[in-house]
Amino acid sequence: MSSLYGLIGEKLGHSFSSIIHSIIFKELSIDGNYHLFEVNNEHLKDAVCGLNALKAKGANVTIPYKVDIMKYLNDISIESNKIGAVNTICFKDNKTIGYNTDYYGFGIMLNKYNVNVKNKTAVILGTGGASKAVVQYLLDKEINDIVFVSRDINKVDVKFKKFKLISYDEIKNIKQKDIIINCTPCGMHPNVNISPINKEDMSKFKVAVDLIYNPTQTLFLKYADELGLVSINGLYMLIGQAVKAQELWNNIEIDSAICDKIYYKINSILQGGNNE
From 193's CA, which of 51, 78, 105, 199 has a CA 20 to 30 Å away? Predict the structure, then answer.
């Protein structure tokens, strides 16, 4: 009998999760089915209980439920507690355990492109949910300094209060830094003709990372390429977090070659303009 997996979220029409996990199932000969579960907030607890009752093996969680889902789980992993968000659930022995594989996916992506953050300096654009896993990974890997950029520095999550916070108008005053990371949706399909910062400010960095993967080259990354920076989009992180989830669900280790194979397949779909 096939094992049940899925994605819990509010609006999932453009998710690539089913495609990614189907490729993993095929490559590793896992007998599984991955479904998309669009759930209203008032039914979130019911969704967790229902999947547990159906003896699902695992589920991913996407916006806007990565924080709310935590109160309905039996246990939370160390990295999820530190981050304050869960994006993966393991169903084991009638218990639910929350993990954050965005954290690992971000690390897998940086390792893929040989980006070492130890003792480096970083600027993170955005203080929303996407930035929580990113900042925790950077701290755990001994980054030297982090500056956050927010549209409203007075309304940021308490988690970010211990860091230097600046507005977008103040980016022009930043001195040379190593890495800039876009954790905002600015530039995402279909609004592809905008960038969170201008080309001149981009020149202050050596590495530019955009968590957006559609389009594969945002205007933000186009500026980076034109300036000769190392530029990385979020597709490998998306794949890395899915692979890590499968490792947790099935207690296995997945070779990096599988990540590469998935990357080329999904990238081909994106380049072809198919974002379903």
Answer: 105
